[in-house]
Batch of 3 targets.
Target 1
Amino acid sequence: MVSLDPALDKDGVRLTVDDAVATVTLTNPAKRNAQSPALWRALAEAGRLLPGSVRVVVLRAEGKSFSAGLDRQAFTPEGFDGEPSFIDLARGDDADLDATIAEYQEAFTWWRRSDLVTIAAVQGHAIGAGFQLALACDLRVVADDVQFAMRETSLGLVPDLTGTHPLVSLVGYARALEICATGRFVTAEESVSTGLANIAVPVDQLDDAARDLAAALLAAPRDAVIETKALLRGAADRTYEEQRVAERAAQARRLRDLAGVGE
């Protein structure tokens, strides 16, 4: 990737911005980019720091694994330095626990902002929270060695970092249930065939493939992409007739804009 001065570089997250393209990189390959509350706060901060010029965000990771998921230190009595352990959180009241999980989820929500198109470039293991982080993005480019797995259920937990909605939307309820309940690996071939990934490439071509996709997305006018994304995102919740109405309204806005005519 292009070497740029980072706008953010802390807690295993680096953000760089090159005009209309931002790159968020997970930078702790020694721990297979395992995740922690500090990393989640850094991811949320990266989203807040994006300048208005950014249209496409590429999420990538250093090392052989995209992310091995939650750092198991979270389940120890000690937890992370300066953080409540998950055991302590479980002993708290429901309102505090809900608020804490909601804060963690903020690292996973901004990737679907209407004014951005986000691309996850995923290699090696993307387990649990790693899988859910890849699912947070609009598009996924995967290396041929990718292995997705949702292991939370196997640990007696549930996926709670916003991954269940996009997973069901992409692969359907039955396959999503089977993937989550068994915790099995999903390979690159299956990822592409089921719509979980857009394309699979050799691992040494992953960054180039993500960069090429970003460039293709930038070729279209920004407002047209924003309107199209909104149409497609809302289609599943609309009837056929409601979608027709939404298409007409969106097209009217575009035509007026192109003609320089006010609403």
Target 2
Amino acid sequence: MTTIRRCALAAGPFAVAAAVYAGVFRANRDRLPGRMATHFALDGTADGFMSRDAALWSGIGLTIGVGVLFAALAAVTTKKAGARLTAALGAGTAVLLGCPLIATVVADADAGVHDPAGARLPVWLPAVLLLLVCAATGALIRRLAKAAPRPSTAPPTASLPLAEGEVAAWSRTVVTRALLVPAAAVTLGGLLTAVAGPWQVGLPLSVLGLACAPIAAVRVTVDRRGLTVASTMLPRPRLALPLDAIADAGSARIDAMGDFGGWGYRILPHQRGVVLRSGEALSVRTVKGREYVVTVDDATTAAALLNGLVNRRVEERSQEC
């Protein structure tokens, strides 16, 4: 699948949503008040307003902007399963954005040109849409997870010899624009939408953006304690694998979307991943058979040191016995 086709599949639903929103807006323009109700309270009553033109262009801009973000994600995805997942998530997000915006136009049209405060937005609509989209997306993810082959396990890297009592440590910081830039854009867009538009759309977007920010930059450390992956912004989330729990380590190259279905902390059968980008990654296998994958530069050195530390621990225990 070519890059252009992947981007078109991911961004297409947003273009459709924006076009439908603009079409509904134009069809009802003569029935819309000059100052429209665009923000609604929990009981569905209007409590925020903006001009008719501002409502039109802010809705189109938000929808197209999020579509561009999904197109960017699709552009860096090389595997077919990842491209399909990106397209599915994009379609669901387009529905979550487009339906409340269209419902707002219909609510204003029903209220009439002289009574924008009388507009009512059904509060159940966003909840029902969210449940339907989440259910459909979850079913698709499970289907793709069963159909896609499990990412190949990286062979162990040759261990770095360590003398008794020798101290060694390795550390790298990983910052990913694939999470940081979209997280900032989605958070900002969500806040603007919550203030000026339907809060039911803006609040989930803001929460999603803020949830992605802490894992956009992490420090990966290998030392006598084992492997530690910690956010550089907050104490949590944090991944710690003690040396006694590690069997061996290696390095591999992965595709974030194709192998793990996206960025962030990923969970697959028998695998866990701190995936901040595609490319080089440290692969650590535990004594219980689970594999942890962390995308980081110089993963071969980290794996060699970790294997050396594990081997030295095994030798020390054998001598004690």
Target 3
Amino acid sequence: MPSLLSVARALTVALALLATGLAQAPAVSADDSGTWSVAPSAGGGTRPAKDGRPYFYVEGTPGSVLEDTVTVTNPGSKPRTVELSGADADNTKGGAYSLERGKPKDTGSWITFAERTVKVPPRTRAEVPFSVSIPESAVPGDHPGAVVAREGGRDAGVRVHLRVSGPMLSALTVERVRAEGGRITYDVVNRGNTVLTPRLTVHAEGVFGPLLDRKPRTLPVELLPGRRVTLTEPWKDAPALDSVKVTLTVTASGGAHGKATASARFVPWGVVAGAGAGVLGLVAAGVWFVRRRRAAAAELPPDEEPEQGVREPELAGVGTAEGEQL
């Protein structure tokens, strides 16, 4: 296997010959927009393709060294100096594929280029070999990363799908299901060691029967091993008043399956608040009326107090004179 140094020298010669040939070719319109590009070289890698590859795919056992080539193309009329580096992959909060910032610790740190700084003449492309050295301690499974090129404040990258040979586990769970405000929020967690694209099924049951029954659909997520993402499922026609049981089921290739349920109560709080205010108003009026009656009774003078009980009638013509004995 040729060393990286010998490959680098061959690269320099190839660039010189390619630049000479292009110089003798008919003139083309200049492109100074800076739209240089980076891509996998055609026909390289462990899965070559004549019509080009959208990404790098490499697979090997712990301790192995894998090789491939990246192409940097400069269609403009000015030379470009491009810096190459490796990066680790990550998920955004919504589950999209992204790259981690900072110093790589996984796949990005295992990538070594024949040249990290590549000078690409006008209307020329550079073929840059690189290697991926898998550590002996690498965990089996998918280790996604990327080859990143930087020049003039612009970054461009190509995905690296690296799989370390060994036992593969496809597993995921759905957690923290919540139904409120016309939406269902939930978490999906990749518990295995392979990249997963989950499919979601949603079912909701109310007091009087089914309310929601959505067929399985593929989520716009590339869930990396060990990652958790929070997703939202819209439910615009959620009931105004009901007690609901929501069931979410997620599946993925390799037999991955997860299921979770949650209970929710839908109450029209605006109506309840209005009714409660009316009841409170009636109670307040009743209390005010009772207190008013008590206050009025307390203000009556003693001689005007209402008579209590039954008084004996006075009989005319019946009595005793002073000093007279009956």
